[in-house]
């Protein structure tokens, strides 16, 4: 992808230079290297920000090419954003969510004094109390309990750190009832 981008910038830089060099020598004149370099800079700057300060297109064909390039940049940016959004939505939809009914039939570990204890009591779940997160995690790994119910941020902290590759994190729809 990067090679395609670089090749496109080079091609556009040469085209802008060819169009602008005679009628815009202050920006694209003098040497081939400086003129093509200015064209590449203009194309890259326009790609990144939508405009380019300091280098101006003065000919009608140059401005038409510049406008076409700006439209292409806008469309490409929109396509990239749409693709990323679609990909993220797919990931969210594929995440396994454990429903409240499933939690009732699981033997879960919860930390003593946590809000999850009250939530499981109200939901009618089967649980074992632990004094520490590590105690509950080790009980999961040894098969003593089916899972450890805690806040998702805490679960992700352990899944991405000390217990990386050993545990999985699943979302629930269980909410605290006030």
Name the helix and strand elements from N-terminus to C-terminus, one letter apiece.
HHHHEHEHEHEHE
**N- to C-terminal separation?**
52 Å
Class inferred from helices and paired strands: mainly alpha
Number of strands: 5
CATH class designation of the largest domain:
Mainly Alpha
Biggest sheet descriptor: 3 strands, parallel
What overall geometry do the principal axes of the alpha carbons give? Answer: rod-shaped
Tell me what you see in this structure.
Helix 6 (115-123) links the parallel strand 2 (107-111) and strand 3 (126-130). The protein is mainly α. The strands form 2 sheets. The protein has a 3-stranded parallel β-sheet with strand order 3-2-4, with helices on both faces. The chain has a two-stranded parallel sheet with strand order 1-5. The chain has helices spanning 2-20, 25-28, 32-49, 60-94, 100-104, 115-123, 133-141, 152-159, and strands at 97-98, 107-111, 126-130, 147-148, 171-172. The chain starts with a helix and ends in a 6-residue tail after the last strand. It has 2 domains: 2-94, Orthogonal Bundle (Helix Hairpins), CATH 1.10.287; 97-172, D-Maltodextrin-Binding Protein, domain 2, CATH 3.40.190.10. It has 8 helices and 5 strands; from the N terminus they run H-H-H-H-E-H-E-H-E-H-E-H-E. The longest helix is centred in the middle third of the chain and has 35 residues, at 60-94.
């Amino acid at each position: 992808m990067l090679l395609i981008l670089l090749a496109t910038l080079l091609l556009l830089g040469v085209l802008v230079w060819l169009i602008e060099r005679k009628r815009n020598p202050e920006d694209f004149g003098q040497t081939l290297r400086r003129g093509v370099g200015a064209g590449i800079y203009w194309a890259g700057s326009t790609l990144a920000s939508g405009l380019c300060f300091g280098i101006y297109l003065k000919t009608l064909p140059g401005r038409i090419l510049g406008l076409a390039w700006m439209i292409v940049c806008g469309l490409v940016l929109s396509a990239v954003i749409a693709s990323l959004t679609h990909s993220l939505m797919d990931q969210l939809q594929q995440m396994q969510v454990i429903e409240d009914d499933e939690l009732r039939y699981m033997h879960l570990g919860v930390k003593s004094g946590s809000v999850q204890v009250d939530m499981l009591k109200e939901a009618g779940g089967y649980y074992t109390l632990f004094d520490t997160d590590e105690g509950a995690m080790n009980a999961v790994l040894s098969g003593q309990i089916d899972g450890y119910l805690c806040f998702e941020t805490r679960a992700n902290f352990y899944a991405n750190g000390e217990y990386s590759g050993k545990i999985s994190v699943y979302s629930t729809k269980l909410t605290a009832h006030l």
